Hints:
Shape: globular
Number of helices: 4
Distance between the termini: 23 Å
Oligomer: single chain
Structural class: alpha/beta
Strand order of the largest sheet: 2-1-3-4
Amino acid sequence: MTTQTKPSVLFVCVHNAGRSQMASGYLRHIAGDRIEVRSAGSMPADQINPTAVAAMREEGIDITAEQPKVLTTEAVQDSDVVITMGCGDACPFFPGKRYEDWELDDPAGQGIDSVRPIRDDIKLRIEELVASLLD
């Protein structure tokens, strides 16, 4: 029996309610079970941003079952790639991990017309990420 480890990605933003949840939704949608997906926040919100949920629904991706989660050291240790989205120094650093910082506007408090370009930017970045991890 061969065990092939699949890459794992952790998305981190402050509230784990918008950007990181949209990124997680896209990665699950595009990569299926070929990549392990995690997301967390340095100060998680009570619920996912409803506008982010609506924006993803337009893409045929349902993220309503997700819940904001607190960022743990273990989540970072267990991930191959850590993608931060405006959480700054709140993310623990471990040598040997691949870190990327995606500068994206925070969808909190924004209307759907402002969230769509953020969502579309995330989708392009996810497609590039999947290509880099599965090639």
